[in-house]
Amino acid sequence: xxxxxxxxxxxxxxxxxxxxxxxxxxxxxxxxxxxxxxxxxxxxxxxxxxxxxxxxxxxxxxxxxxxxxxxxxxxxxxxxxxxxxxxxxxxxxxxxxxxxxxxxxxxxxxxxxxxxxxxxxxxxxxxxxxxxxxxxxxxxxxxxxxxxxxxxxxxxxxxxxxxxxxxxxxxxxxxxxxxxxxxxxxxxxxxxxxxxxxxxxxxxxxxxxxxxxxxxxxxxxxxxxxxxxxxxxxxxxxxxxxxxxxxxxxxxxxxxxxxxxxxxxxxxxxxxxxxxxxxxxxxxxxxxxxxxxxxxxxxxxxxxxxxxxxxxxxxxxxxxxx
Length: 322
Ligand SMILES: NC(=O)c1ccc[n+]([C@@H]2O[C@H](COP(=O)([O-])OP(=O)(O)OC[C@H]3O[C@@H](n4cnc5c(N)ncnc54)[C@H](O)[C@@H]3O)[C@@H](O)[C@H]2O)c1
Prior knowledge:
Layout (H helix, E strand, L loop, with lengths): L3 E5 L4 H12 L3 E6 L10 H4 L4 E5 L5 H15 L4 E4 L6 H6 L1 H22 L3 E7 L22 H19 L3 E7 L1 E3 L7 H10 L5 E3 L6 E2 L1 E3 H14 L4 E5 L7 E2 H12 L5 E3 L18 H6 L7 H15 L3
Parallel strand pairs: 1-2, 1-4, 2-3, 4-5, 5-6, 6-11, 7-10, 8-13
Antiparallel strand pairs: 9-12
Helix pairs in contact: 3-5, 5-6, 7-9, 7-11, 9-11
The protein binds nicotinamide-adenine-dinucleotide (NAD).
């Protein structure tokens, strides 16, 4: 059955690919973005479809969020699912300025919830993050706690999860909370691979890499992320559904990302590590992530983290004409 989906942050890396995927599946898609991080270029494919409707809006303003959802309902009828992806995706920017995550990450959740209530939306899927766990030594499962984030980004994502949980008691019927690891692939607006490719394209004398290269994190390809999110929304039917989504096996070392990007884009470029065990304040340098709950639901990733990284390096390099 074809449905009407609304995506916040639709002009971003993941939001625009979700829009394309849902449109390909024959669904109607509406979305909003303020273009603070996303781009019009990311919407090029969606704009060609008559089943796509876009509103430019700052979703941290509840009035603007309500107007955007209302416009979508007027254009394409009742909204089946809101996918809430709008946020600040630059963790270090949020450490430097407290207001960034408060407005873009928590504020857009508040605005989206107010709009959802006003427009009779019953189901919201939310892009949360491994950053809600903070820096813990143990295997991260959906039951881990207490959750003590070490970045404003992680803190406002956790606060967003809490607001959604409360809304599931009053006016929402179902919420899905996805805790993503690092997501990579074409159209990315940030992240280590994205930065390395861009910097190497400028032919620097050396590639500057934050930290000592031993940071190790799971990297998931965006194609697999979309598969997993759609699978969870179709299969997980509790009132509140919380899932880690991740790649196969262990994570990838930052040194591996740097070496592989150099090999693809500018062979022979030396690496200059800035030193220290982490890239920036609020960075969680190493974590291991359990995706057993998602496997039990019936979804398994195809790619290991290193393989996903190699694929994304090539895709991002091609995007840059390299
Ligand atoms: N990419 C990752 O590695 C990753 C990891 C964990 C979680 N996430 C989450 O997934 C979601 C999508 O991330 P992404 O990588 O596509 O980032 P992105 O920055 O490309 O997309 C976020 C979008 O939200 C928009 N936005 C920000 N503030 C807004 C506002 N006030 N009003 C309207 N639009 C606004 C931006 O313009 C951007 O298009 C985000 O919520 C992010 O926190 C991403």
